[in-house]
Amino acid sequence: MDNSQQFNEDLCQFLARATTPFHAVAEMVSRLEAAGFSQLIEDTDWDIQPGGRYYVVRNGSSIVAFGIGEKLGPIEGLRMVGAHTDSPCLMVKPAPERQRHGYLQLGVEVYGGALLNPWFDRDLSLAGRVSFQCDAGSLRTALIDFRRAIATIPSLAIHLDREANKNRSVNPQKDIPPILCQLSADEKADFREILREQLVVEHPGCGVEKVLDYEMCFYDTQPAAVTGLKGEFLASARLDNLLSCYTGLQALLQWDGQATVLLVCNDHEEVGSLSAVGAQGPMLGSVLKRLAGDLAGYSALTERSMMISADNAHGIHPNYADKHDENHGPLLNAGPVIKINSNQRYASNSETTGLYRMLAAAEGVPVQSFVVRTDMACGSTIGPITAGEVGVRTLDIGVPTFGMHSIRELAGTKDAFNLSRVLRRFYNHPGSLAAS
User: Fold this and answer.
1) Which ranges form a coiled coil (predicted)?
2) Which domains does the chain have, with CATH numbers?
3) What angle do CA 373, 368, 225 make, to 5 degrees?
């Protein structure tokens, strides 16, 4: 098995465990601690040492991990990689129970810009964070994941909608509440009680007395898989953007200890990033200010630093090639994609793209570019948000992907591995990040 095969197998295992942003951060923490990183608590003093490896978690769904260079400390600048932990999904509402015609359904809210049609006829499970009162009278939280198919959203048969293949649309209020089970006429469903029972299964001895609230989302139980006649594709849920979280993490774990490096994975990108733990919130800036020590040091640190924002790019779809600019249609397995937009929907500029091209060439990794069609609106990433909030030079990069925001997305098996190689070189680059 070569390095790329090992990379993709482990990526599939990571995706299987990272079913929510909370679970993604928990999995990242587990891997960081196994590599010698230690947690810093934000309301305490930090004892930061050269060569030290640290991480900070907020809300259980965003994480900043960093290593202090033994040769180039923070004041010489940071090599930063950013990604996001959240993906479009169906979140369970606070009072979700719907009993109709003997079926228990749960009301859901669409999180982010989900492509809804692929959610029909899938085997769905539930995962998330639960807040509960324990028998000692205190408030506690815990993560749960049913890890098995417990729900589905059946399609309406074509016999009952003969125009389905022409103009069927999805009403997110009426059409997508998942079915969990059948109930007899005298049964009364209580979703919080279902969660309480699952808490006891996953956390025996937790002393749960009453579930107070929750952040639970449905997800597809079909595992990530290498597909394609030649094994050239990776199919999975949540590739946008857990693939980038994993890629950045793998690069960080191969840090050589010389320069100061940082990985930030924010929650809430899919809904605009404006939150206490989103890229438009204070988390990253707070960490950088503590590393800098004072305002003058912070200004020097950000001026000498650079961020690579990693978020998936739109690969050119052979059935819809006219959706791309003819000279900027990225191919799967043809290299990571530099994302450019003159209206600052992406934060790349010629200096940051030039450095990336130099690093990629040193690794023998091909590079592609994406520019949206001039007559179409452009999406965005945490790149421009981080650049605006922190004031750091930024590059937007991504792995070409099909079906972005679907319940199951498709990427190439070479691209994430190649991006990780370039990010590793970026972290371990011995020279200045700025052009002279």
Assistant:
1) none
2) 3-87+237-427 (3.40.630.10), 89-220 (2.30.250.10)
3) 100
Question: Rounded CA gap, 319 and 240, in Å?
Answer: 21
Pairing of strands 260-266, 313-314: unpaired
Please state, as a whole number, how many other Cβ atoms lie within 10 Å of the Cβ of residue 42: 12
Instruction: Report whether 63 contacts 245 (CB < 8 A).
Output: no
Confirm if 307 and 391 have CB atoms less than 8 A apart: no
Torsion from C-alpha of 39, 303, 348, 338, nearest 10 degrees: -50
Going by DSSP bridges, is the β-strand pair 306-310/393-398 parallel, antiparallel, or unpaired? Answer: parallel
Query: Residue 5, Cβ neighbours under 10 Å: how many?
Result: 13
Q: Is 0.85 surpassed by the pTM of this model?
A: yes
CA-CA distance, 40 to 402, in Å (whole number)? Answer: 38
Per-residue pLDDT reduced to its tens digit, 129-176: 999 999 888 999 999 999 999 999 999 999 999 988 988 899 999 999
DSSP string of 180-225, one letter each residue:
EEE--TT----HHHHHHHHHHHHSTT--EEEEEEEEEEEEE-SPPE
- H or E stretch including 294? none
Please, which pLDDT band fits residue 72 given cuts at 50, 70 and 90? Answer: confident
Which H or E run contains 26?
A: helix 21-34
Task: Give the DSSP H or E segment for 235.
Answer: strand 233-236
Using alpha carbons, select from 67, 25, 401, 270 the residue that is nearest to residue 278.
270
Token digits for 283? 């988390």
Q: Residue 435 pLDDT more than 70? A: no
Residues 403-416: pLDDT tens digits? 999 999 999 999 99
Does residue 431 sit in helix, strand or coil?
coil
Type of residue numbered 122 = R
